[in-house]
Amino acid sequence: MRMPPSHPCPRVPQLLASLLLLAGSAATQPQQVNVLLGDSVLLSPTLLPNMTVTKTEWSFSAGTGATILVAESISGGFMRPNPQDRFGKRLTMPNATALRIEALEVGDRGVYEARINLPLALVEEQTFNLFVYEPVPPPEIQHQVFSLTTRGCNVTLRCWVPGGHGAEATWHPDTSETPWTQPCEDSQSLCLVVPPSAFNSSFTCLARNPIQERRVSIHLGTLCLSPEISGWWRWHLCYLLLPVVAGASLGLGLWSRKKRKAARGGTFPAHPPQEALCRQIQRRSPQEQHNLLTTIYSQQDRDRRTPPRDQ
Q1: Which three-class secondary structure state does DSSP give residue 15?
Q2: Which of 78-87, 157-166, 194-203 is most confident?
Q3: What does DSSP say about strands 122-133 and 31-36: parallel, antiparallel, or unpaired?
Q4: pTM for the complete prediction?
Q5: How many Å from the N-terminal Cα to the C-terminal Cα in the chain?
Q6: Counting runs of H as helices and runs of E as strands, what totals does the chain give?
């Protein structure tokens, strides 16, 4: 009995159907697109090369349950079903399938679906999940210094980002070895007991969202040696200098005491007082008085004319 000829590849149609099914399932997975507020975005479906597109429809859903048709492309012509919708003139289609949105707003967040008609009544659907983020502001570092003990500087740092920007704040030390870092109640705060050897360390507060980040750093030396706790150092410096100051004061007192004692007569001054000289002259004869006065005046005159020697 003659058997009918069999197909050389009996499972080819089934394999093609499976591949098309898998390709369709992969295509329907939403593609996440992250964009910055005010920028533009191009949503471009991915198709096989040399595929002919007969029609493309773009719809938008903000997640409230309502879906609106926002753009159409038929035979290369671009149309807006409702030019008065929230997009206005911000929507264009640069080719038969892609959708461009200009000057993105916060309300543009949502799901955009492209329904592409191909020959042989084939339909390709691709979905884009658009996220619009506000620019990340510079983070702020708040600090509170509690004390400066023998262990070091006890300080708390908090990295803060204004709400509503979708940014997350994290801390990054300038070195991986920070055993003096203790956990705080919230993830944005650091509780530090900084030893004096680590006063030259710094920490960076990083605020970021999926498309942008901003950094602000703080040096621990500006906190642990700031005026609000520098009094601790001044007191310890005073304790160190107190013996030196006390010794200098004692020496000055002894020197002043000796000087006062010498002024009272403990030692004879270089030149006798005028009254003592007068009494010595009056006890002498007239000739001796004349000779003594002549000697005294001559000595005083020589003293005035003789320049002092360099010490």
Answers
A1: helix
A2: 78-87
A3: parallel
A4: 0.59
A5: 144
A6: 5, 16
CATH number, domain at 193? 2.60.40.10
| Residue type present at position 204 | T
Residue 168: name the closest of 186, 145, 191 by CA. Answer: 186
The three-state secondary structure class of 239 is: helix
Identify whether residues 124 and 27 lie together within a single domain. yes
Q: Looking at the 3D structure of the chain, how many domains does it have?
A: 3
User: Which domain, by its residues, includes 210?
Assistant: 140-228
Cα–Cα distance, 103 to 35 (Å, whole number) = 11
Question: In this structure, which amino acid lies at residue 23?
Answer: A
CA-closest candidate to residue 73, choices 44, 100, 93: 93
Residue 107, domain member (yes or no): yes
pLDDT at residue 82 greater than cutoff 60? yes
CA dist., res. 209 & res. 158, Å (int): 19
* Domain match, 26 and 85 both: yes
CA distance 25 to 297: 129
Residue range 200-226, pLDDT digits in tens: 888 999 999 999 999 999 988 888 875
